[in-house]
Amino acid sequence: MHTYLVDGVEFEAVIGLEVHAELQTNSKMFCACPVVDSISAEPNTAVCPVCAGMPGVLPVVNEQAVELGMRVAAALNCKIAPTSLFDRKNYFYPDLPKGYQISQFEYPLAEHGQLEVRTEDSKRAIRVRRVHLEEDTGKLTHVEKDGESYSLVDLNRAGVPLLEIVTEPDMHTLEEVRGYSEGLRSILRYLGVSSGDMEKGVIRFEANVSVRPAGSKVLGTRTEIKNLNSFRSMLRGVSYEIKRQSALILSGERVEQQTLGWDEANQVTVPQRSKEDAHDYRYFPEPDLPPLVIESSWIDRVSASLPELPNSKSQRFEEQYGLTSYNAQLLVEEEAVANYFEMCVGGTENLNPRTVVSWIIGELFSWMNHSGKKIGQVRVAPNALGSLLTLLETDVINNTTAKVVLGEMLESGRSAKAIIEERGLQQISDSGFISSVIRDVLNKNEKEVTAYLGGKETLENWFFGQVMRQAKGKANPQVVRSELEQQLEALKRV
To answer: What pTM was estimated for this model as a whole?
Structure first.
């Protein structure tokens, strides 16, 4: 059991997540309005009487949204319902033009799935309670100008298809929360159903958090942290709420069931309203939509069309390429990165996969983080990286030179061979030449040689660095090390 120690008392956190993901459809959930970028598009330009909630209009279900929802449900091993119903979820909010949201409640699209989450020391299946379809709300922009405060409403996002994925309260640690969230986001991207762009609010997390004394089976009073749009905010919000609730219980106070927001500036949760229950929304069947009937043949086609998913790919990488679990998971988080790795390994004969992965998650990831570019924008094709690493593994160049060459390849897009030949970067393995350089270094540094012979043997690494510098980094390090040891041993015997 994973517990938290607060003032000498052990508590267990109980966490469930609700994830809202915008689906990558061409049009909205119940009308023909196009789905546009909620940040770059001109406000209120993708709106019609249906998504604006005008009286007398009739919604029509988007078939593509249903299929994308089914893909996610199948990937999460959910049971897809042959018949599901849409409901009206009634509540007021300024960017909800109808005064209600068309969602699913009692009879959702799919139920009873799971997602396996890997943590540092275990694997756990997090149960998925339900997957259902609904529509998004509009967007409010809050303005303060000339001493006045007001809000602007943009209905471009109103009616965009949303998929809500709700877990059981199966998570107990921040590591599990992160593992589930990142794993689900990867699945959504692999399936091509959502971009998962958290900065644009395309995927949003809501965390239900409660705590209880370690060993107790009774669920504590939960709070819900709304609209968390980054992994960092989510983890900090959940962590803060665990500590806050534990402190309340220790002081004899009661945890109130309520909806909270996360104040990023002050790193605290803030109350928004008392937590609603289902009856507060006055759910009732949407009278303008018939039951959504899904034939078994459609379910079978969708299930058969699923790609290899991240967990399966990670396990295959471990077995096929001998990768560690950690490295395999890093590679498969983004499908484009996993494909790049496989093309690099497959396009170059006899190249060690472990060498490839170390360069991708090391040098390549470092460059991408620094430049802000994604794998699809890298100017070094997989076979070009494979060619560079082959030159490294066959001792044509050394590790230091390979990093220099890769840096130039990333900037110019030129081949490793062309850069090496132009700049004369081929590795020198001639033992005669290297021996002469070592003798020259030792002769020029008599003081250091005397200190080495007097017992300061750590100077051997300093001599090694001087030799590599004099050889302009092109000497074979293994040959340098061997020849240097021989010459230093010879000096000891004099």
So the answer is: 0.85
